Give the backbone structure.
Amino acid sequence: MATQPLRFIALRRLLAAAAVCLLALGPASVHGAPPDDIAVVVHPDVPVDSLSFAELRRVLLGDREFWSSGVRVTLLIRAPVARERDIAVKIICEMSEAQFRQHWIAKVFRNETPSGPKIVYSSEMAIDQVTRTPGAITFVETSKVTKGMKVLKIDGLTAGQAGYKVK
Amino acid sequence: MAQGCCALVAALSWSTAAGAQTAAFVSGQAAPPHDVAPPQSAEQHDYPSLHIAGFGDIDFAQTKHPEGPRGFSLGQFVLHMTSELSPRVTFFGEISFTARSDAGTGTPAATGFNAEIERMILRFDESDRLKVSFGRYHTPINYWNTAFHHGQWLQTTIARPEMIQFGGRFLPVHFVGALVEGAVPAGGWNVNYQAGFGNGRGNVISRAGDAGDNNDFRATLLTLFSKPDSFYGFQFGGSAYFDKITLPDTRDFGERIVAGYAAYQKETPELIAEVAAVRHQQADTSLVTWNHAYYVQAAYRLPQLNHVLKPYFRFEHVGVNPQDLVFLAQPAPNLDSGVTVGLRFDASQFAAIKGEYRNWSRGGSQPRNYGGFFQICFTF
């Protein structure tokens, strides 16, 4: 009979220790949570389900101007400071903000493209524009992706999967 | 004149409204003020959509022996106009105003500005693989000529390489005619092509045949270049150009140009190397002369001070054959060796200050020359 209270006390201590650990880990895991991957979203009629990372870079740099259906690519990109833009410029294009701007000014100057990317000022605006503009492509945090949006795989991986590079 | 000014002001006002989004992109505006209407939707595209941008530069030069402008000079004031006429048709125009000591009237000629239509191109885009255009171009047989040309702010250095100087005669800087171009993925090699057919050099060989060709032989050109995915930032290519030159004294010469280049433009480092060879053969004779030119340029954007400094170096050479009858009639300057060392400081994202030292020798009896150069250049 005397062993049961002892086991009960041990169990309580174990639970308490587990609770302390959870409390200790909980806030840290919230603050240290990895930021969302960035989903590459296109207009529903864009005839592409997947792009390689290099192809995505060519789209961002204006080297690819048309989808296979013949519709012109409309690049929607967040204004500076937004994380989506940072990922696009620094991770995908491997450029600084100044280099990215100079690249596009030079691109228009060389008459390789008639205009630079279109600026969107919020995720909501990006989502609204990409669903309404034929040929549009944009970058949205995965937590903001809603049902019905067409999200591209990059190098065969969906945003959130291990190895996904757009983050 | 007044009508022209009014038209320019109207065009600028129009472009300001129509190009609000691009302006925001360029200015880096983070978000629109609350009392301003939200930017135009990307789907609400009005045609034509005119945008105007430009480049300008102010220069200073001091050389040991007089050659080129001395003291302060205004460089070129360049306006670019781009307009989408439909989803697949675009117009591009470029006008330059260049300070010249002999542009004005009177005797001696007063200084003034020469206005020039540098480029005027109407392009039809079928796809990435096929684009057809007509107009006046920067001849796409030289990397520097198409990559930077009048955009002094775009190029790292103050001076262009001698082989492709403004108003130079070694290579044809402009081309009037038609161009077919496109790009194919080619397994990640991203091969681009440009094929051109049009008027080559005019009676004055530094000028294109803007008002018509001066002989019955049209110039043709073919350029191929690659931007491989596996070596991001690297680009290399080559080109060939064929024309018949007719000098004012009616002598005809066949001209063939072959050129090649490699460029790595990621700035850490930036490397550009180009080579070109020009062959002239007088019609109905076997007299053939070859001329050649090359340059190698290296630069590196330093990580200190928020990446605003970029030192650079260039070595160049232009070997003009003294027997070449075309370049005897209309001289292209020889350059035994030219060394340029300089520093570019990006004072803002759209303005830069450059300072450079050049030391060059033209050979023959001409003494070696050197000088210091300074430039403020910008885009707007």
Observations:
- Residues 124 and 310 of chain B are 38 Å apart (CA to CA).
